[in-house]
Specification:
Layout: H1 2-22, H2 39-47, E1 51-53, E2 66-69, E3 76-79, H3 87-101, H4 106-125, H5 138-149, H6 161-176, H7 185-193, H8 217-258, H9 268-278, H10 286-292, H11 294-304, H12 306-313, H13 317-331, H14 335-339, E4 346-348, E5 355-359, E6 368-372, H15 392-407, E7 421-422, E8 432-433, H16 444-457, H17 467-479, H18 482-489, H19 494-500, H20 504-526, E9 549-550, E10 579-580, H21 586-601, H22 609-628, H23 632-638
Antiparallel strand pairs: 1-2, 2-3, 4-5, 5-6, 7-8, 9-10
Helix pairs in contact: 1-2, 3-6, 4-6, 8-9, 8-13, 8-15, 9-12, 10-11, 13-16, 17-18, 18-19, 21-22, 21-23
């Protein structure tokens, strides 16, 4: 058993040395301690993990503090030297950053390193005496918060509260990461639990002042119609281009066999066929055409146009835009998640009645999931059933067909599985997916093509980012349930849904619901329970009498009612021109029958005979006219139920 362990250690050591030779900057150099028993495995493990480097700057000799995280072609180096105005705190925070950053994405690491090095480095430089982690107390934290609240911007204004919380938050992350550290665990626990660390120093900072912008229903419909129109045109274009290419190939072969110049100017298909013959694995440019055949370049440049020739062969970035938007509406994913979708993560059910999209979201550990339902969608969506014009399955088939030839000339093989790939419409030398260091949605190719789509159709300017909250708001309108919105958007926290995906329309609807509830409660209390909204269907809650609806309950024309206040004329709805009635609905008819008895019962002591005779006979006649309109079968069905209403008054 001992020999086996030694062999494993020797193997790991050999691998580590080989890696050090191949990429010496990406591993920790093995020290002399490797000569000690068991040191081989320890050194090997160190070589494969992150470390802290305190070697002086080789050019200036100045002190230096860096966190080095190996991985990929070269290691990531995070310079934290600005913290060295307080060396003990600097090493403590650097060790915490190293532990915390090990499982975080590179983009997040870079952002948090900036907060730690620049902002906290500036604060540590203001401390007049050396401070160690064991000396941090409530006074230290109070001073830190006061410094964060000070004028930090160039114009003398403080940072936004969210920014201040982010700066304090990276300190907290570094300390929390050390709770289980063998050397720093005790002091880290003390700092978080007993030193007075400031939690929630800026309450309410998450309150969103500017509502999330969304597309209105008419704007979304115009966008969808534009997309579906382009998709239909692309379908026709694909059918036509195959015939043009077939003719072009035949004419080219005939000209080559006869030894004469191909008819480039007369037939655009001949130009396209010559390009695929000469450049089967890359995108041809004007310079390539000139070197290949000046006559071909002249025909493409002056007669047909490079865009027309490229569109005969490949999918342009502009062609891809409607597919992105339609799939974005279906999935409600973030822009970068939509644009980075891959074919291997598009899964059809066995009967092809549903499609599942799996997307990657930055800083999310789980894949984002969207399943297209098989039921018929609403009239503002596009069909999801296979075989239907514009259906999601057909849309994906069309996209695959459109990009098939483009996939063969991609400059980057890693893009071959991406849904959305294309070629530039004019200049540009490569076929590729939408890509940028800041994310696919920041790609110049996407931004230009998307703006061109909006301009071509005269649409109200919007962004791909707006599709996600727009779909969330539509789900809210359908269900009135914020939890359903959270599930649609694939979020774990309901607070995230409430803070970041609540539009101005949703806020107004929330306020209106609260106001309506208050008004209904007030009317229920003032009528002493006679007008009880809890027992009414949704369509009847606005009216003062059960079984009726009201066109304008806040502007009643009944005597004694005030404009702007919810009508409380209980029992008077049959004689009101604003009332709505449903004589064919047995549930409503039950209340009409009960109301007749409630009006007669009012004479038994609730109102005087004179008052009753002055007010209620016209209302009773109107009610009797309504009862006469009820079909016999509906009245028979309603008679099976018994509802008692309180007497009118």
């Amino acid at each position: 058993m001992s020999r086996k362990r030694l062999n494993v250690a020797a193997s790991l050591l050999k691998q580590a040395k080989a890696r050090a030779v191949a990429a010496p900057d990406n591993v920790v150099a093995l020290s002399q301690e490797t000569a000690k028993p068991g040191a081989e495995a320890s050194a090997t493990i160190s070589a494969l993990h992150s470390r802290i480097d305190e070697t002086p700057d080789p050019e200036t000799g100045a002190p230096r503090l860096r966190v080095i995280i190996p991985g990929g072609k070269k290691p990531e180096v995070f310079d934290l030297s600005r913290l060295l105005t307080q060396p003990d705190l600097a090493r403590f925070l650097a060790e915490g950053f190293r532990h915390w950053a090990a499982t975080i994405s590179s983009i997040t690491r870079l952002e948090k390193r900036r907060l730690l090095n620049s902002n906290i480095g500036d604060f540590l430089a203001t401390l007049k005496t050396p401070t160690s982690p064991t000396q941090i107390d409530r006074t230290f934290w109070s001073g830190f918060v006061r410094w964060l609240d000070g004028p930090r911007r160039k114009n003398g204004q403080p940072w936004a509260q969210e920014t201040r919380a982010d700066v304090l938050g990276i300190v907290r992350l570094c300390i929390e990461a050390l709770r289980d550290h063998p050397e720093h665990g005790a002091i880290a626990t003390h700092l978080m639990e007993r030193s007075g660390f400031p939690f929630n120093s800026w309450p309410g900072r998450h309150t969103k002042i500017v509502p999330t912008p969304v597309l209105s229903q008419s704007e979304k419909r115009e966008m969808l119609l534009a997309c579906l129109g382009e998709v239909a045109a692309l379908q026709r274009h694909l059918d036509e281009r195959e015939a043009i290419l077939e003719t072009g190939r035949a004419l080219l072969e005939e000209a080559q066999a006869e030894g004469r110049a191909p008819p480039y100017r007369q037939e655009i298909g001949v130009c396209a066929a010559r390009l695929t013959e000469a450049f089967p694995d890359r995108l041809a440019r004007y310079e390539d055409l000139q070197a290949l055949d000046p006559v071909l370049r002249y025909a493409v440049n002056d007669k047909h146009g490079m865009l027309a020739v490229r569109r005969l062969l490949y999918a342009t970035f502009r062609d891809i835009v409607p597919f992105v938007l339609l799939i974005g509406v279906k999935t409600a994913f973030n822009p970068d998640t939509i644009l980075s979708l891959t074919w291997t993560r598009v899964q059809f059910s066995d009967d092809r009645r549903s499609v599942t999209f799996l997307g990657v979201k930055n800083r999310a550990t789980d894949l984002q999931v969207s399943v297209s339902p098989t039921e018929a969608p609403d009239d503002q969506d596009f069909p999801a059933e296979p075989g239907a014009r514009g259906g999601l399955a057909d849309l994906l088939d069309l996209l695959r067909r459109l990009t098939e030839r483009t996939r063969a000339i991609l400059a980057n093989p890693d893009h071959s599985d991406r849904l959305f790939i294309g070629v530039p419409v004019q200049s540009g030398s490569v076929a590729k997916a939408f890509q940028s260091a800041m994310g696919p949605s920041c790609s110049t190719a996407w931004q230009y093509s998307f703006k061109q789509f909006i301009a071509d159709h005269g649409l109200t300017p919007f962004t791909l980012k707006m599709l996600r909250p727009t779909e969330g708001e539509e789900e809210w309108r359908r269900t009135g349930d914020l939890l359903a919105v959270r599930d649609l958007l694939g979020q774990k926290s309901i607070d995230t849904t409430r803070r970041h995906y609540t539009s101005d329309g949703m806020r107004r609807e929330n306020q209106e619901r609260v106001a309506e509830t208050q008004a209904l409660y007030h009317r229920w209390a003032s009528s002493k329970g006679r007008i009880d909204p809890r027992k009414k269907p949704e369509q009847c809650r606005s009216a003062a009498t059960p079984g009726f609806g009201c066109l304008d309950p806040f502007d009643s024309i009944r005597p004694g009612q005030r404009k702007g206040r919810l009508c409380d004329a209980y029992g008077e709805c049959p004689d009101c021109p604003l009332a709505q009635a449903w004589p064919n609905d047995p549930k409503a008819v039950v209340y009409y029958l009960a109301l007749s008895k409630a009006i007669h019962d009012a004479r038994l002591g609730r109102v005087s005979a004179r008052q009753w005779a002055e007010k209620w006979p016209p209302i009773l006649r109107a009610l009797n006219s309504l009862l006469a309109e009820i079909p016999p079968e509906v009245r028979a069905e309603a008679s099976r139920f018994r509802v008692k209403l309180k007497p009118v008054g």
